[in-house]
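User: Fold this; tokens only.

Assistant: Input:
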Amino acid sequence: MADDYTRQGETFRAKELAGVKFPANHVVTMIPTILSGNQTASVTTASPLSVPTGATHALMTVDTGGGDIRYWEDGTTPTTSAGLLVPAGGAAELTNLASVKLISTSGTTVVNISYRKYA
């Protein structure tokens, strides 16, 4: 078809916007590389992560039997009542790792963190 585009053996159907044709979006699924440097931490007060070199993302799980966790990814210090909430037994995907800070909402909470790199 005249409205299709071919790139590296794949054909894309064009979309039209105000008479101008654009290639349709192409979604790519990326598989992360798991990095060494997994971390188990007991969190009480607001604390940063120990991020291994090259990590771009982290998967954090919060152990049951402790409190919930709150965090911010922009360097802001969370409090027991302010921040994104991850309940005990829950999980979160973290980005902007150099700026992430965690705090337990009550007592000491154990978190497990697996670091990843998306190429």
